[in-house]
Amino acid sequence: LSFLSVKGPELINMYVGQSEENVRAVFARARSAAPCVIFFDELDSLAPNRGRSGDSGGVMDRVVSQLLAEMDGLNKSADVFVIGATNRPDLLDPAILRPGRFDQLLYVGIPTDRESQLKVLRALTRRFHFAEGFDLGSVLDACPSGLTGADFYSLCSAAMASATRSHIQALEQGELAPNNQTVLVTLEDFKVALRDLVPSVSPSELERYDDIRQKMSSSARPARNEL
After folding, report:
1. Contact between 121 and 156 (Cβ < 8 Å)
2. How far apart are CA 210 and CA 227, in angstroms?
3. Average pLDDT over every residue of 27-44
4. Where is the signal peptide (predicted)?
5. Closest Cα to residue 68, out of 107, 95, 108, 40?
6. Helix, strand, or coil here: 178?
7. For the segment 93-127, what is each residue's pLDDT rounded down to a tens digit?
8. Is the pTM value of this prediction over 0.85?
9. For a pLDDT cut of 70, what percent of the chain falls above it?
10. Could you tell me if 140 and 118 are in contact, meaning their C-beta atoms sit under 8 angstroms apart?
11. Which CATH superfamily groups domain 2-97?
12. In angstroms, rounded to a whole number, what is the distance separating the alpha carbons of residues 226 and 111?
């Protein structure tokens, strides 16, 4: 199974007709590599609500129409699947969400329960070497609420950077053998990282996303909610 990842803005071109051609090329490439999954990231930049894009030349309207035509053409083939991701589903053209197109909606929220958060931390730190007695649960206890996966990634990266600095300092001071290349991450490293960590999504933004989810869930195409 082939996987074709496309960022929406990459297909937009300043020359007349080139953006539509880029859309056609993506689907042509997928059909030639079938079975294939096309993943459109930042879908809202590729399929904004027509007539509201502020584009006097109508370029985005034509791009959306081309995307719809290509997706409708896939009904004849069961070997190409299309997935899209967006942080602004409220900006999408309604036609893109009709049956036969993006008709299955999945809301991916932030991890809110402890077990889900621990799974994220375990995945991000699977290659870390921890000091003796280290417990990821203690890290989670010190974290603020409302952290996204990206926030946890930033936290783990900063903790590793702190541990690396401590390791280099210990080598320079002769506290470790010169051939010791194993960086041990401690709870203190995570505490240092937490000092500068600010949740990337505010409570008001989370509330707005939940409002959008509820509106889309009450539409004719029920949306599933998964954390």
Report:
1. yes
2. 12
3. 92
4. none
5. 95
6. coil
7. 999 988 888 888 888 889 989 999 999 999 999 99
8. no
9. 92
10. yes
11. P-loop containing nucleotide triphosphate hydrolases (3.40.50.300)
12. 9
